[in-house]
Design a protein that fits this description.
InterPro entries: QueT. By secondary structure, the protein is mainly α. The protein is built from 9 helices and no strands. Helices cover 65% and strands 0% of the residues.
Length: 164
Amino acid sequence: MKKLTLEEMSRQAIIAAIYVVLTISIGDFSYGPVQFRYSEILNLLAFLNPINAIGVTLGVFISNFWSTLGSIDLIFGTLHTAISLFLITRTKNIWIASLWPTIFAFIIGYELSFLAGFGSFEIMTLQVMTSEFIIMTVISVPVYKLLMQNSKFVEVVGGTRKNI
């Protein structure tokens, strides 16, 4: 792995901080059986530049310190994000990339149903899948397609992909 520059480390710290602020700003809607983390829109920053997966993953980990689910959310929530972002960085099409968090929502479904006891695995997974799909695919992809037309945005996020 290449050594991160000061600029890249600073960008990752800012991404993590933004993720944390967005997540905790909506309180209970970020945690528990009904999740709608609009901070998940930041996941596609990893599509634009794989290094950004560091900041997003760190942001998820830190955000989960406020989770009502306790330490299990630190493990399962971060695992869900790490797997999803790894695959997002390897995917060539932004629409397909946006689906990875939805596909791996069963990790959070498992956490919510079996470890936290909120309800059936199928219902918990479906609820998380629905919110991930709405945020990641329905909202995020059009927003990123629009933002990628702005060269300053691409420069600020360290975007390496020119065509999405």
